[in-house]
Prior knowledge:
Oligomer: homodimer
Amino acid sequence: MTKNTRRDEIVRTAAILFKKKGYSAVTMRDIADSLDIKASSLYNHIQSKQELLEILVISLAEEFINGMNKIMNLPISASEKLRLAIDFHIDITIHNNEALAALNNDWMHLEEKLPYFLKMRNDYEQNFRTIIETGMTSGEFVKRDVEIVLFSLLSTLRNLYLWYARKGRVSEDTLKNNMADTLLKSIFST
Amino acid sequence: MTKNTRRDEIVRTAAILFKKKGYSAVTMRDIADSLDIKASSLYNHIQSKQELLEILVISLAEEFINGMNKIMNLPISASEKLRLAIDFHIDITIHNNEALAALNNDWMHLEEKLPYFLKMRNDYEQNFRTIIETGMTSGEFVKRDVEIVLFSLLSTLRNLYLWYARKGRVSEDTLKNNMADTLLKSIFST
DNA sequence: GTCTATATAGTGATAGAC
DNA sequence: GTCTATCACTATATAGAC
């Protein structure tokens, strides 16, 4: 993933700038300036600005989908799946902070790959919904409006990339434990 | 607020487009096209694209601050304040859906008014923090990491504009009751 | 209040020298 | 792998006619 080539340097720089100002407000000259080269030099390593967005958003979305699919196929309870899914989401947030900003905020600027992205996004959400519904049916979770619980959970997870960048130095494990506890407490039936 | 002048029509149109693509990706031509006029005609009603952003973001932020200040000054318990604050946030979300998207996602493109906005945003967050801390001290809320509870609560409220636009036809009262219940359950000590 | 015409400054991207 | 030079296009915004 992080193979210190020039190309990856460009991708990482783009991610940082996309996070700060958004895809549309970042110019190829901005990216080049950050690397102390000229904008035209970027094109020796990447094909287009759009490609930078695709690299960031699509590969991260695939990582989400693959990890989630593994969790869904485990022979464990709904509450155990939920705990794993939350931890997994926190993991990605911590290790792909900048790319996650692009995924959250700039996906609508994807062109060719937009439908593919939307399918992955929808599948990811559906997996969470299934976990919550299963847990409510089995009595592990308190019965409440599924969509509201789902929305509240996903909102918190999706915004985590901002909060983690700000609070910085809380350890990964502390974050996972506290966050998971807080989120899970709101739905456990006991 | 909604005084059907041409100017307000332009502001409303801009808000809808800003929500869809973000401030930077929306051109004055896009706004003009939506109104079936030429881009140059817009400048008879507004001064600049930046002014459109300011009108949307700053006036809404002021509404948030004013409402929150009133709640903070009421002689009521922390849990009552929290319930009112959540309801108030939901109120604004429902009635200013598009402008709220700009406030959430495009505030960093403010220029002159950016410091003013950041102060308001910080004050709003601090008020929520005070409520949570007071409630934990008094024993109304279960003692947990204040910042994580605060973050989770604000994430859900800030994302609500997206969810409400999608789910559409759930009544305002149903939403308030279900959402407030779900959010509050996670922190009440009983 | 809207139009046409235009000024001025970017924008993403390419060609070709070094 | 980076540069200079440049293209074709688009951006915000203004001036002045109707």
